[in-house]
């Protein structure tokens, strides 16, 4: 006879050997499940049922089912984890509890959640947080640094959801900012699809942060970055530790990616990259360049990214120069064809990175010039742009194009023509804004001379652009517009110079208005534009005559006393 099974749940464990550090794309895994099983359409119940079926399949394949006919809990210990499928069990347990809580919240509608439903969904969120802690415990010492950070961010996000329901705003902000920081930095890694997933999660967290900030401080916040920086400053040492972890993960991922960047191709020549340090630096620069290309950001954010990009290119150039110096020293001692080939490749690579840095510097300066022009024409509430600032920008651009011309090969004639033409365009713009700078200093002769020179430079630049085979029509249109502006401004400057000459002999108007001095010509009213005094001055006017009625003094008015009744004869 079969022995009777105990009524108490039996505790069994599963143990197996350990292996290399495991890797799990946690966010990609759950987002893929969300999109395929109902979350895209807000059907949390369907997703919850999917999680239940998924857990059953995982436990059955890993042979950790909780009994056959009767429930017998099987506990998975950390030392028994040898594949990432073990980590999916607590992950989908947390997802199932979260989906149940969201289902309850969705069924309650936009109105106030009933108390019974509220306590139920809070218990579900608490259960989800508990499974996140179980996931962290199970994954300890078995996963790589990237997966550990993903689990930490997911746990912070889930705990933030729980505290959001309990309305503990300060704690929620601290947890969500931590999760946001991790997701934002992880968004710099991986393929474009993975980066898009991280950006979407950051946008979701930003919405929750705005809601928490509104409830905590009673006002909206436009710049999430300000709130994040404030939270980081309050966290102090814990944020520094998190930042160091993120830097380690970024460096580790770049080293893995550097194995794929073994060579570069530029101008028909392929150059091998043998130094790991140069590869890592190039990958870091490519990541920032990808952020600039793929996302539409505001001017200040773009300028900040350009600064980071120039620092990355600087690190790359420094690594190349160090490597080049070592090879040159070796060649001085012992010459070989292999060493000379490596030296030539490094020189070519140095030229390539310098070219990339120059092109991005030109892009940055053109963005700055566009922004300053807009502020000059339509000043914002802040400081108005001065023409001198634009003179400096176009001076830098002209210098950049000169350096780019020196890098161009002698055989690449068309590229060299285009670079020279764009440099001449910068000269024309520089003359134009330098003329406006002289106008502000009342140096009329120099200003008119510079505007004439500007028109000459426009003609030269247009001829060089038209000489190119594939010239840009937008550049020709900009030069035509500049020529019209310069010719119009010459008339304005001549008029101002004439008025300035007249002012020296002018006498100021007695009343300061043109209406009171129509017989006197003066140019002083052009500055003040005072055509008449307003409000007008008071003038004396004759009042209406007063008529006195004296006739009533000679009139006798009837008495108003009542008459006495006459005595009757009878």
Question: What would you say about this model in short?
Answer:
The chain has 570 residues and is mostly helical. 67% of the residues lie in helices and 2% in strands. The chain has helices spanning 26-36, 44-62, 85-108, 115-139, 145-165, 169-186, 192-217, 224-235, 237-258, 276-294, 299-333, 337-377, 387-407, 413-440, 444-467, 473-505, 525-528; strands spanning 12-14, 74-76, 263-266, 269-272.
Could you explain how this protein is built, in words?
This protein has 17 helices and 4 strands. The longest helix is centred in the middle third of the chain and has 41 residues. The strands form 2 sheets. Strands 1-2 form a two-stranded parallel ribbon. A two-stranded antiparallel ribbon has the order 3-4. The N terminus is likely disordered. It is flat. The protein has 570 residues and is mostly helical.
Which keywords apply here?
single chain, about 575 residues, mainly alpha, two-stranded parallel sheet, 17 helices, 4 strands, disordered N terminus
* Estimated share of beta-strand residues: under 5%
Structural category is mainly alpha
C-alpha geometry = flat
- Biggest sheet strand order reads 1-2
Low-confidence stretches: 1-18
Q: Helical residue percent?
A: 55-70%
> Average pLDDT, to the nearest integer?
80
Straight-line distance between termini: 155 Å
Rg to the nearest angstrom?
41 Å
The arrangement of helices and strands along the chain is: EHHEHHHHHHHEEHHHHHHHH
Biggest β-sheet strands, sense, barrel: 2 strands, parallel
Instruction: List how many beta strands DSSP finds.
Output: 4
Q: Enumerate how many helices there are, as a single number.
A: 17
């Amino acid at each position: 006879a079969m022995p009777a099974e105990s009524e108490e749940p039996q505790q069994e464990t599963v143990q197996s050997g350990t292996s290399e550090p495991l890797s799990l794309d946690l966010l990609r895994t759950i987002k893929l499940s969300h999109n395929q099983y109902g979350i895209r359409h807000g059907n949390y119940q369907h997703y919850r049922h999917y999680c239940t079926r998924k857990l059953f399949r995982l436990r059955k394949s890993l042979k950790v089912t909780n009994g056959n006919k009767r429930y017998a809990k099987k506990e998975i210990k950390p030392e028994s984890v040898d594949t990432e499928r073990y980590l999916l069990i607590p992950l989908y347990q947390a997802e199932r509890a979260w989906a149940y809580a969201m289902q309850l919240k969705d069924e309650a509608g936009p109105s106030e959640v009933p108390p019974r439903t509220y306590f139920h969904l809070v218990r579900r969120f608490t259960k989800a947080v508990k499974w996140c802690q179980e996931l962290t415990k199970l994954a300890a010492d078995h996963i790589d640094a990237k997966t550990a950070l993903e689990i930490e961010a997911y746990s912070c996000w889930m705990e933030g959801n729980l505290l959001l329901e309990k309305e503990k705003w300060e704690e929620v902000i601290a947890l969500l900012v931590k999760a946001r920081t991790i997701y934002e930095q992880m968004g710099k890694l991986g393929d474009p699809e993975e980066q898009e997933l991280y950006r979407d999660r950051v946008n979701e967290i930003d919405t929750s942060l705005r809601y928490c900030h509104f409830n905590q401080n009673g006002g909206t916040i436009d710049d999430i970055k300000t709130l994040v920086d404030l939270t980081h400053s309050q966290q102090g040492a814990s944020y520094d530790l998190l930042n160091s972890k993120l830097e380690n993960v970024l460096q580790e991922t770049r080293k893995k990616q550097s194995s794929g960047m073994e060579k570069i191709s530029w101008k028909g020549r392929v150059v091998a990259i043998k130094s790991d340090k140069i590869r890592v630096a190039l990958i870091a620069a490519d990541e920032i360049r990808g952020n600039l290309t793929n996302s539409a950001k505001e001017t200040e954010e773009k300028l900040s990214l350009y600064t980071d990009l120039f620092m990355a290119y600087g690190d790359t150039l420094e690594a190349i120069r160090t490597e080049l110096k070592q090879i040159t020293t070796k060649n001085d001692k012992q010459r070989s064809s292999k060493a000379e080939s490596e030296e030539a490749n490094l020189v070519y690579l140095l030229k390539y990175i310098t070219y990339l840095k120059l092109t991005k510097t030109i892009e940055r300066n053109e963005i700055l010039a566009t922004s300053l022009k807009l502020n000059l024409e339509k000043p914002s509430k802040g400081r108005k742009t001065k023409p001198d600032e634009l003179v400096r920008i176009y001076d830098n651009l002209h210098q950049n194009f000169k350096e780019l011309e020196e890098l161009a090969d002698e055989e690449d004639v068309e590229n060299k023509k285009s670079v020279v033409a764009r440099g001449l365009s910068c000269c024309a713009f520089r003359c134009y804004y330098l003329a406006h700078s002289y106008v502000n200093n009342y140096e009329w002769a120099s200003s008119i001379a510079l505007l004439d020179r500007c028109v000459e430079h426009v003609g030269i630049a247009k001829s060089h652009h038209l000489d190119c085979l594939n010239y840009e029509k937008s550049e020709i249109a900009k030069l035509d517009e500049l020529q019209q502006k310069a010719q119009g401004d010459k008339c304005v400057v001549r008029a101002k110079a004439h008025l300035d000459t007249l002012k020296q002999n002018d006498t100021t108007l007695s009343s300061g208005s043109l209406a009171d001095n129509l017989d006197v010509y003066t140019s002083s009213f052009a500055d003040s534009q005072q055509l008449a005094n307003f409000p007008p001055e008071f003038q004396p006017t004759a009042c209406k005559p007063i008529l006195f009625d004296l006739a009533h003094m000679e009139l006798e008015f009837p008495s108003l006393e009542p008459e006495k009744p006459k005595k009757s004869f009878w």
